[in-house]
Amino acid sequence: MNEPRPVDDASAEPSTLARALALLAILAAGTCGGLVGHSVTDLQCAEGCPMLAGSMGLVGAVLAAAGVAVVAVLALRAMAEWETTERQRTARDRHPVD
What we know:
Elements: H1 16-44, H2 50-94
Helix pairs in contact: 1-2
């Protein structure tokens, strides 16, 4: 009778290095967005309003981090899909169906 073949336990999730680099990019973008938001607001305010500059820095940080997070998630998903497609193509080449 036919015995079941062992299942390949390869995961479709991105590598730890790719996820760490994505996190680093998100943190860097948040920092840069916060600095830009704070600086622009601080330059526009004539009487030195630290509360407004701080809140705009926070808004800039959140918006920049969210934007980069969306791009990072899409890139990680594309990498996972590409690896899965390559794995499927290799399996089809090894076991052709006529």
